[in-house]
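This follows on from our talk about sequence and fold. Can you supply me with one protein entry, sequence and fold together? Could you add the entry underneath, on a fresh line?
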Amino acid sequence: MDDKPQEELLSLELVKEKFERDPFVQDYLAATLWDHPGREAELLEELTKDPAEVIRAIERVSGKTAKDLANQPGGIPHYLQELENCVGGISRLWDALVGGRGLRHAVKALQKVKRDEVRQVKFECSEEFYERLMDEKLQRNLTIQQLAVRALERYLALPESVHRSIEEEAERTSTPLPGFLRRLMQRLSTLIHEPEMAEKRPTAAGAVQLRNALEAVQHYLEQLPLEKVQLLRESLALDLKYYRSSRRKRPTPRKGTPDAGSAESEGDD
């Protein structure tokens, strides 16, 4: 028999049809893609699109070369039909395709299907909201992207009816929505951590001193003109920004200096 390209030895569509009808294969796809439901067909397509991989699996199951199978009456399609007629035949073919020597092929296909596309979302906002975002980004030590994704994840976790109820209650009590949500979250946090808080009721002396110091600073700031408060705010923001940056890029002491031996044992607080 003349050598033929592997693509001509079998129909990949026929192989896919066999796999699509097999319950074992469908269970495998669903279990493998439990975190990406609805993409089973993509994975099956990726696993069966290379004829060389499929033929190698058929050869492992049959114990014959693809050419030998093609020379038999009915060729490879006839062999696949016989395999389907046997209990567990297609399952064994699937195991040969994705397990053992086919595992590397399966991993690559799965990685390609699971690889999420990075998409960009842009939106416009007021100058006031933009400044607020910049402040929150700095205070929380997060990027704008992290802030946006976290906020949306939390919003989408609740039904729209719950969000409407919160807005209606804030309007009924004439409370600005941010303040209403802040109080609501504080109460919710208290309920969640109530057992822990009961155990930690005695306040540490350091925490008391810190609270007193912050209250004193707030008292001083309230007596300053707005322009001075704004300058202090910007100065503190810059200090915090460069403080965090310096902690990430702490210089390593030169060899021979007193600190050189302890440089590796120090870490961020």
